[in-house]
Amino acid sequence: MTLLILTLDDAPAQAAGAAMLTALQATGMPALATVTCHMLVRDVVRLAPQAVVALNPGVDDGLAPGLQAALVLLAASAPRPVLVLGGVCLPAAAPELLDARVQAWLPLPLDIAALRAALALAAPRFAREQGLQRDLQAALARLDERKWVDRAKGVLMQHQQLSEDDAFALLRAASMQANLRVGEVSRNLIEAATAADAVNRAGQLRMLSQRCVKALALRAAAGVGGRGWSSAEDGLAETLQRLQTNLDKLAGLGLPAPAAQLLADTRDAGLALTRLATLAGAAPRGRSALPSAATLQAADLQAEALLDHADALTTALEGRGGLRLLNLCGRQRMLSQRLAKQALLAGLLTDAGAAVQAAAAAQTVREFETGLAALDQAPLATDAIRTALAQARGQWQRLLDGLRRAAGPEAAAGRLVLARESEALLASFEQITSLYEHSMQVLLG
Asked: What is the layout of strands, in order, in the sheet containing 82-86?
């Protein structure tokens, strides 16, 4: 059995190691070399000894600190049978010896016969321990896979309306197609579902930034107690609540460092918008309760900041190809609210502000129609998604009709159409986004 002799880094220890190397070689034992603690792992890999004999002179109650650290590192990276030659080994030292995977302890001075006998027992003991360790790791891996499979089946059963047997059959078929274990496919599915949820929630923040200002604009346009006042009040409260809920859910996902910083910036922008919108909506019902043009412009400026941060966060999270499609679909939600907001502000602000919003609304129309065309051509669309898209196209045309009416003599009626159809279009794209989020084609890619 080939040996390496391990010593401490000081000169006396190395001299003792050299003397032991000579003594062992003189008896015909295949001792390869001496090595110091800081070189142990490298030389074990280079020389490939079958065992390591550690010299631990002058220590009667365990391993010298340098030996302890070196042997623990060896056990983690390139394990070998380890024998220690030293003083009396006390029972109190047993835990650190076990941590260092020491198979035997022999007293000094060196007894060649005792060393041979200890090595003969250490090798099979080490092999058995390694086998047990491999069995344990395999069992833990199977248990971990079982957990992932159970979680994946739960996702499929919930979102695909499948039985447990059918969900497992789907996972097994996907694993065969991808040439991966069922556990790996299950883990990928859960990770994709988590990522899809993050993209969806981050994308909702974009929409909510625009919906918040839309609600304030509807309130200003309706007048105190006027037609549409109540829905504007309810819409603002619901929007702010959803904004906070999504920020809290994203914070609970434990996002990695770059996305976590983007989320922190998004949260700050969201809280700033919430404070401004709450202040604008907190006045008692009376003329002072109507948001002024200055308040609407300030809210819109803060909403644009939230939109920019949320868009950067969503882009950082989307990653996979299927999730980019989910991001595109979620963006249509935002554009439906953005267009209604811009049309309302165009009718409420002064000439310069109104012109800016009207030009922005024309750009939003183009962006929405570009996104709609891209979704029509998307390769991952299911029958349910295509049906929902057809419904959304009809709502989009009605929203455009409201947009035209809001800019003319039927402004009041047009605003009501904008409010109604933008919410209907939002509901449709909420449904479509959810269908993409839970699509097997997106999750399993």
From this structure: 31-36, 3-7, 51-56, 82-86, 102-107
Q: Quick one: 243 and 312 in the same domain? A: yes
Same domain assignment for residues 433 and 320: yes
Helix (H) or strand (E) holding 104: strand 102-107
Each residue of 339-353: pLDDT tens digit? 999 999 999 998 889
324 with 245, same domain: the answer is yes
Q: Are residues 221 and 295 in the same domain?
A: yes
Q: How many CA atoms lie within 13 A of 18 on its CB side?
A: 7
What are the start-end ranges of the E strands in 141-296? none
Q: Is the torsion defined by CA of 394, 304, 272, 328 positive or negative?
A: positive
Residue 283, pLDDT > 70, answer no
- The token pair at 229 is 């006042």
Q: Identify whether 159 is part of a domain.
A: no
Q: How far apart are CA 197 and CA 57, in angstroms?
A: 60
Whether the per-residue pLDDT at 438 is higher than 90: the answer is no
Structural domain range at position 313: 184-444
**For residues 110 and 125, what is the distance between their CA atoms, to the nearest angstrom?**
22
- Asked if the structure places residue 173 within a domain, the reply is no
pLDDT, greater one: 204 or 99:
204
DSSP string, 5-27: EEE-SSHHHHHHHHHHHHHHHHT
What is the pLDDT, as a whole number, of residue 226? 54
Inter-residue contact 203 to 331 (CB < 8 Å)? yes
Let me know how long the chain is: 445
Query: 107, 132, 157: which is the final residue of a domain?
Result: 132
24 within 8 A of 83, measured Cβ to Cβ: no
The answer to whether residue 54 scores a pLDDT higher than 80 is: yes
**423 in a structural domain:** yes
| Residue bearing the bigger pLDDT, 229 or 74 | 74
Taking only the tens place, the pLDDT of each residue in 95-115 is 888 888 888 888 888 889 999
pTM for the full predicted model: 0.69
